[in-house]
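Appendix B: complex inputs.
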Amino acid sequence: MTVTENPGQPNAAAPTPPAIELIGISKAFGPVQANKDITMTVAKGAIHGIVGENGAGKSTLMSILYGFYKADSGRVKINGVETEITDSHAAIAAGIGMVHQHFMLVDTFTVLENVILGAEDGPMLKPSLAKARKELQRLANEYELDVDPDAIVGEISVGFQQRVEILKALYRQAEILILDEPTGVLTPAEADHLFRILKNLKEQGKTIVLITHKLREIMDVTDTVSVMRRGEMTATIETATTSPSKLAEAMVGRSVIMEVEKAPATVGETVMEIKNLVVKDGQGVERLKNISFSLKRGEVLGIAGVAGNGQTELLEVLGGIRPATSGEVIMKGDSIDLTIKANAQKRRHRGIGHVPEDRHARGLVMSFKTWENTALGYHNEPEFSKKFGMANQKAMLADAQGKMERFDIRPPNPQLVASSFSGGNQQKIVLAREIERNPEVLLIGQPTRGVDIGAIEFIHQQIVKLRDAGKAILLISVELDEIQALSDRILVMFDGIIQGERLPENTDKNELGLLMAGVDPEAEA
Amino acid sequence: MDFGSILQILDSAVRFSTPLLLACLAGLWSERSGIFDIGLEGKMLIGAFAAGAFSAIATMPVYDGGWGWQTGGMWVGMVAAIIASILLALIHGVASITLRGNQLISGVAINFFAAGITVLLGASWFRQGGDTPQLPAGGRFRPIELPLSETLSDVPVFGPIYQNLISGHNLIIYFGFFAVLATYWVLFRTRYGLRLRAVGENPGAVDTAGISVVKLRYSAIIITGILCGIAGAYLSLGTSAPGFGRDMTAGRGFIALAALIFAKWRPVPAMWACLLFGLLEAISTKYQSIDLGFMVLPGQFMQALPYVMTVVILAGFVGKAIPPKAGGEPYVKER
Amino acid sequence: AGSHGGGATPALIFDLGGKFDKSFNESSYNGAERFREETGIEYREFELQSDAQREQALRRFAQQGNNPVVVAGFSNATAMGIVAAEFPDTDFVIIDMVVDAPNVRSVVFAEHEGSYLVGLLAAMASETDTVSFVGGMDIPLIRKFECGYFQGARAANPDINLIGNMTGTDGSAWNNPVKGGELTMAQIEAGSGAVFAAAGGTGRGVLQAAADAGIYAIGVDSNQNYMHPGTMLTSMMKRVDVAVYNAFNDVNNGEFTTGIIAMGLAEDGVGWADDEFNADLITDEMRAAVDAARAGIIAGDIVVHDYMSDGSCPVN
Amino acid sequence: MNTGIPKWVDVILIPLLSLILAFVVSGLVVLSIGKDPIQAIKLMVYGAFRLNDGIGPTLYYTTSFIFTGLAVAVAFHAKLFNIGGEGQAAIAGVGVTLVMLAFDWPHWTIALLVGTLAAAAFGAAWAAVPAYLQVKRGSHIVITTIMFNLIAGSVIAYLLVGPLQANGSLPESSRFPSAAALPTLHDILGVVGINFDRFSDANITFFMALLAAVGVWLLIWKSRLGYEIRMFGESDKAAVYAGISPVKITMIVMLISGALAGLMAVNTVQGQAERLVLGAVEGAGFIGIAVALMGRNHPVGIVLAAFLFGALTQGGVELQFEMQIPAQMVIVIQALIIMFTGSLENLVRMPVERLFTRMKKRAA
Ligand SMILES: Nc1ncnc2c1ncn2[C@@H]1O[C@H](COP(=O)(O)OP(=O)(O)OP(=O)(O)O)[C@@H](O)[C@H]1O
Ligand SMILES: Nc1ncnc2c1ncn2[C@@H]1O[C@H](COP(=O)(O)OP(=O)(O)OP(=O)(O)O)[C@@H](O)[C@H]1O
Ligand SMILES: [Mg+2]
Ligand SMILES: [Mg+2]
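Resulting structure:
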């Protein structure tokens, strides 16, 4: 790191220089221009938000500031001093800390070991660990950041893992803290706690940059906000002077209908009955603890809950991906094989469609062409089969072409591999495949995660259309807004059980949030 | 079986296990840093060759083109072995760290390369079909009698154990056991070890902590090279077959790998695993066929025993051996 | 066969152990070299790398007009049988095995006789009541060495303990000195005072282990006495070099004959190495005994059982 | 990677440049042992393609390498690294021997059919155990297949000095009945009037190998099973989501792979040696890895790469005969080819890609 005094810069007598100044930052990943000539200023002691569509370049920009990526061009000033950030080491030395979207923790290490990694005091571990233990105690007291220093990081919840990340930054005496989508994995209560910490930090004079998709959070905690679009910085505004819909418009470049339009549901008979479902994972931990509910024609049953409370397992058991430990699922009078012999293809034959939570890992084969992906799971159907075990590739291709047109998947070229589509279009490929089979029951996990606002509109419309065609839909989402907007009935899951059932018109975020945290407000009352 | 034969078998087991142990620890360093290494065999082989060749050259009479050293030739061999093995390790490093190539393929290539080049060079240097000349006493590591081994030999039980089993091995064997402790200590007690373990689990965490992933991994690979070189040197300088013979590693690199998995990438269990494999080899050497009463296990069965046991152990007793999480995959920040 | 008027264009094929195995390949190399030095005629050579190359190598030399084509090693019998039939005008020589064809000379050695002599010496020299044997690949030929050796040892000392080990069952057994060393150490632990290695390259480890422990060792095929003066009691010489030299020479002189040639003590085809390196180890008494035994065998007074004649050994 | 380089660069230019690099370094190795690399390469080409006794052995080796290369490739499509071709082929040789010695064969066609089935079955069986251990017990298939190679060696050594040994002194089986002998290329091409190398071991299995290549192409890219195999290889999670059992697909793939590796025994044991000998596989199992890598796991590439490696092997014999360069030279060349086309591929790929992106940018 080289520090050069800028002669044009006012010194101590003048007002404090901004904590962060990014000047003309550009960055390309191969053919992708992730950041284009970006300039941004953050005042010292401010909480600054950054919003933008998926892939807009937010993480890239902050990773450059943190020295994780190297910018192709541009300059950085920290506290008014031109600073060359060659790597994360230099960033740390300049007082910058970052909590990455995907945590950078060593799962097999203890909290303490994770905290000192790279900030040890000498070649031997013992003294470093002892010192860190004390320091952690102090930080915990000061900022409400309690964690057991000897816990193995892989075994604590994401909320605590995030605290470890913040502790790591504070232990390195960060004056500037960057948080990349910190609330995506938190319960509302945990998120509130986080924001309290952030305000506390702000009071101590620290500068905070917050990347988030949730416009409400921007409105609640930030002082200023920047909007990014396709690698460019389109606006920086005082938060007080804007509104969510204005921000959304700035992000997408057109006005967005933020409400889902749907008629009241006409609910029919029960299609699927889940009774006493229990699922244990590989370590023998119960992930689903005796769950029962039923699903009816013509309804969207929303399952709310913080990620990791059993929703994934529920979806996977129903979708035939993992066996159940015990329990029963009855579909139209016949029970479904939940044993190890369960098989997702058989489920599809029974009329169960499945849009998985993780489209990258499950829903698509990223290196497969679109026409191969639109047959995924249905490749043994008669229309895709030929004699002697051969595949009818012509039929697959024609089928893909049609789906791409009907779902407005762009570019509509079935020969392109899945990874060359944007997140929204990838999700549309999965949806087209599952919805066009016209399943009796459609399982949908996180339908709009990482999907831009325009695509969200379309996807929501499709879900509602399927419901109106009299099909049953089980929707799992960590986004409360989405659950509230789409569901005709809401179940809240917490720690493998159904914590409560509500109708959307009779509840609010607050109550759902409490349920998601394992508290039943009705029971308490 | 009397006490004497038991001691003899154990003694033999220690000798058989030493090259395995050194190679296993070598693999441990590499894999703990996130670089899979099935090229241990090749690095050992080239180490054995370099050791045999340079020790031979050092001790060969001057008129034969050697240096005419009477003693200490083995140290020349040892250094050569380490250098040769490090060079191969660096090729693996460039392939898997810098060029982000496939680590398995790189390992396979290195094994092939070593199998070929040792014979080519050996045949061209010494004209003995790829073998090196027999080494004189000054060109190899001789057993060391530990103090008091004669004096204590009369003490019942412990005396013979001390004299035969503990004393009377060469320096490399003692180094092997020292390396276990050193590996343990460095990995779990020092800053470097912490970082190294971290880079094998999550290189992103190391990178964002401001430490160079590349440097850490290269350093681990070099340690792997050193240890493999010593393992190879043991084969040509430390056994009763002084000198290099073609393909003399005979699959030990793979057994060492199996031991590493068996030990779940931990140094002390690695030692036990290697001793177990050494013991199996010692038994199959001493008992060439075993009469079970109702049938005789043929010699071929005894020969295959270490391999069969490897499979059985991997399948039956290891449980789920979870390798360092980042192992095998190159660290790619920007695609 | 044998119809050539003379003038050899000889070719020599080495078996898997390689040209410098300190054993019979090296011995055949020495024979060929001697021929080259004496006659100035160059010969062609090929080191087999795999079993599958046997036919190819024989055929190639025959095809290119080499004569005679000589190969040492029992494993070549089948290939020789095939190729010899394809090239009836070429003279072939196989050593250590009999191939019944009109253009093949098969040279076999009475290894059991030579082994008997070194067994005698071993038993007399051993400072313990045990002598031992390390073989290479477990095949009848090596059992023949072992059996002769054991008979000789018993003849010298009817109470002597005998230990025998084979290194392995495939080709790698000829080239595994580490295992050879360990086998020897185990034998020493079991009391052996002299060890005979008939194991090709594996013998290197046997002889070294014996030298390290200070017991007597006996080499095989070529004279290996020089390797560890002081502990090398002797070597069981098997004059493969003579067989090769004779084959080259006979063709060169137009005197080549086919059929089986047996080389025993009488023909000096086998024997024990007696040179400056082991002079101090052989006492007069030993020399007298071994000379007597040699004479007895040649005269037919002593009959050494040949393991390969019936696949069994009278002593063990 | 989506840098959008033209396909021909990806499948032809880059491997070719890597190959050239491998040969350049091989030349340096030849130089380092004091021999003339130019002469060596001339000899190798001459030795491998000479009509009377070069191309025949080359095709014989090619046949084996096609089988083992396909075996590796099929497994690779499921991201399984089958290093066990060596052992699978060896055990397949036992299968061939058992059936060949069991019957009096009325005609070679029947012998070929049964021999093929036996080879495939035994090869598949030897692959089944590591496959099963991988899916059920999590034993790393790379290590178990290596162990099974070594164990196969012992099994064969046992059989050849024991139950299968023909006469008292040689570790080999009896000769197969002559009616089981497969027609050689000399016999076959003789029918159409071509006088092919009379002594070469190349035989009818060469055409079987080509058929197998076509079969593998159909399997991997045209069949539903192949679709499942590729899907499993690309993403095991997506495969489970699509209703594919990892256990089943792993077993099937390894059985196919083992069977393909086993087929090379028809070439070597039934076609060439006509008896079981020690070391009948001659390292072809390992070479299959290099062949698959070079051939980009595509049958067309594999056939070409197998031919290259066959020519290398036969050319290497020439080096031995004429320049006294040990056969290990060929192993070194193979190693360098694996290295440059496999693990060091980016050495060539990165600059080439950069070049093409720059050219594209300039064009745009
Ligand atoms: N390491 C990388 N290598 C190559 N391309 C990348 C890399 N990281 C990001 N990109 C690409 O750069 C662009 C910007 O990505 P970035 O992660 O900065 O977006 P983002 O605004 O943070 O999105 P999100 O809202 O999903 O977090 C995207 O097109 C992405 O595909
Ligand atoms: N290393 C990388 N190389 C290439 N593309 C990347 C890389 N990292 C991220 N991307 C791409 O950048 C975009 C944003 O990345 P990000 O990590 O935010 O994932 P995401 O799709 O937004 O998932 P999440 O649901 O976790 O937000 C994605 O399209 C992703 O594919
Ligand atoms: Mg991001
Ligand atoms: Mg994101």
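Residues A 54, 101, 181, 450 surround magnesium ion (ligand 4) (CB under 6 Å).
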